[in-house]
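Work Package 3 (structural annotation) set out to generate three-dimensional models for the target panel prioritized at the project kickoff. During this period the team completed the workflow that converts sequence records into discrete structure tokens, so that structures can be stored uniformly alongside our sequence database. As a representative example, we reproduce one entry of 137 residues exactly as it appears in the project archive.
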Amino acid sequence: MCYSTHVTEFTLTLESGASISDQAVYAAKKALISGQMRPGEPFPSVRSLSQTLKINPNTAHKVIARLTAEGLLEVKPGIGTIVAEPPPGNATVRSNLLKNNLERIVVEAKRAGLKLEDLTAALSYHWTRLSPGGESA
């Protein structure tokens, strides 16, 4: 008997300047937060991920290991790797997880000469675009 499980795929657009694994992790996170991949859904296997994204299987394994370590994926024996439920806790605890990333964004925005209003507008645009049911990219 053969079983087939639908696995949500996500896309990766390679850019120079960042490692392929970092870009793949970012693409997966983007798919997770935008609602393209939902908690409980199967995540692609190492082989499937490497073939779909056209990346080395070792890189695909690193991506899955990193997402699992960050609590975004969980391994279910006999089922495979699935998208994890969001962590419980209050907004302050969850926002502390982003502190370093937000600081980098602020530094880059200031270095580029942006004003707080520009950064807020850009943040609002991307928040809406990446929200389930938001604008399409």
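The first helix runs from residue 20 to 33.
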